[in-house]
Amino acid sequence: MILVDSSVWVDYFNGTETLATKKLDGLLGSQPVCIGDLILAEVLQGFRQDTDYQAAKNLLCALPIHSMVCKDISIKSADNFRTLRKQGITIRKTIDTLIATYCIETGLTLLHSDKDFQPFQQYLGLQAA
């Protein structure tokens, strides 16, 4: 199963064509795609128009939604952040650390277009689509 990050959904809903949005377009309806509760909140809070919000909510809520944060993921996320910081890498957003750690720990592949996930791939084994 592939978990899709907000960095891809935002471009997708804005009609921005990228490698990641092309990949997402090909995956929808052909392979299992899911979203995390944190990502769902990130994406939905960005809509200004009620009609766009409702359409996106209907689409996203039809996907499997993973609850991403618990005590174990929180602690492992802090460990991962500290591991990367020791490598001289500081991740800008805590939410990205939580998402990457969740995917690593659960074996989900992450479709993203955010450079903050690259160190997780390089040093911690995050599988990216």
SSE arrangement:
Layout: E1 2-4, H1 6-13, H2 19-27, E2 33-36, H3 37-44, H4 50-61, E3 65-66, H5 71-86, H6 94-106, E4 109-111, H7 118-124
Parallel strand pairs: 1-2, 1-4, 2-3
Helix pairs in contact: 1-2, 5-6
Describe the structure.
The structure is a single chain. With 129 residues, this protein is α/β, with parallel strands linked by helices. The chain has a single domain, classed as Rossmann fold. 57% of the residues lie in helices and 9% in strands. The chain contains 7 helices and 4 strands, in the order E-H-H-E-H-H-E-H-H-E-H. It has a 4-stranded parallel sheet, sandwiched between helices. Helix 1 (6-13) packs across helix 2. It is globular. The N and C termini lie close together (10 Å). The mean pLDDT is 97.
